[in-house]
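As a warm-up, study this chain.
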Amino acid sequence: MMKSASALLAVLVAVGMMSSSASADISKGKKVYLKKCKSCHGNGVKGAKMKTQAEWNAAFENNAAQFKAWHKGTKAEEYVNGERFEKKMQDLKDFLYEYGSDSGKEPSCG
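Now compare it with the structure written out below.
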């Protein structure tokens, strides 16, 4: 009985850690969006709602090939093809996915 309780506690702690790290990524992605995307795409509510969650997933496949293609010829092209974007790409994806048009959620950001 004691081993079962210990195992359950370990699972709960692990799940709790995963959910807090996922939310940290979304929070970082929100910061990236506000800094790099807001000037062209509007606030986080408007920007994330531009696509569904499936469309955001597809946009970030193959090293964000589709996302980069959307920005070809824009003032964001240099950024999305750069090293800084590579480092923050997963956080931005997590934010956009979390608040995609079919998510039923809205970020609380300006």
